[in-house]
Amino acid sequence: MRLHLLQVGYGDDEPVAARRDRVAALVAAQEGADVVVLPELWAHGGFASGTWGERAEALDGPTARALADAARACGAVVHGGSVVERVPGTAGGPDRLHNTSLVLRPDGALLARYRKVHRFGHGRGESELMTPGQEVVVADVPLRDGTVLPTGLATCYDLRFPELFRRLLDGGARLVLLPAAWPAARADHWRLLVRARALEDQVLLAACGTAGTHARTPMAGASAVVGPDGVVLAEAGADEEVLVVDVDPGVVEDARVAFPVLADRRL
């Protein structure tokens, strides 16, 4: 399996439409990938909460359409990072916003949707403006060799909540895809947590971060693919980068047989 993690970098001076076109072209160029992964809220700004309301879009909006075209161009499954999704209010109520990930098939059709469960901000920003998701999502991701890989979905701040990853494990996940907009100030936490979540659940974890500085917040970068033994197989630097990693999904079952810790769970 070949994973392409697109650690997109951007600043406040790049218009959303221009960034959307630039990143869609980058995705379209990822020939040979099984799975392409983008960062959290790369189009709308991971920390740009003051503009989320005006930038929000429906799930068939311009970002989703651009990514669907790009998936068809490169012939890979595309995890689109996440978008600020607008859901119209009912009975005259206000619209809802979600931090929503879309996973697209190689033909551009929707494979899975995940609305972020854990909102960051401690009463401000995302935790104030976004509605939390309610579903734990594991999707069967098709690979180029004709096999499918049960894949769990999580987003950024979710990384701090191991109970979600246990639910993904119990849903059959062998791989977890995690887009993020993780700040440089807590890069050490990021490196610790991606290893811990992979190790404790004996899964492959592909975590795609963000580069650059936006909304006065420097990003950590450090996108990584971690094996089920907690070993970092590859890690990006701090700048925009495409991290390409080849990994055998069979290492998950090998790890679980060699060290069957999951069989000893009691709670």
From TrEMBL:
InterPro entries per the UniProt record, alphabetical: C-N_Hydrolase, C-N_Hydrolase_sf, UPF0012_CS
UniProt domain CN hydrolase: residue ranges: 1-249
Alphabetically ordered keywords of this record: Hydrolase
A GO molecular-function annotation: hydrolase activity
Pfam families: CN_hydrolase
Similarity comment text for this entry: Belongs to the carbon-nitrogen hydrolase superfamily. NIT1/NIT2 family.
Protein name: Nitrilase-related carbon-nitrogen hydrolase
Lineage: Bacteria, Bacillati, Actinomycetota, Actinomycetes, Kineosporiales
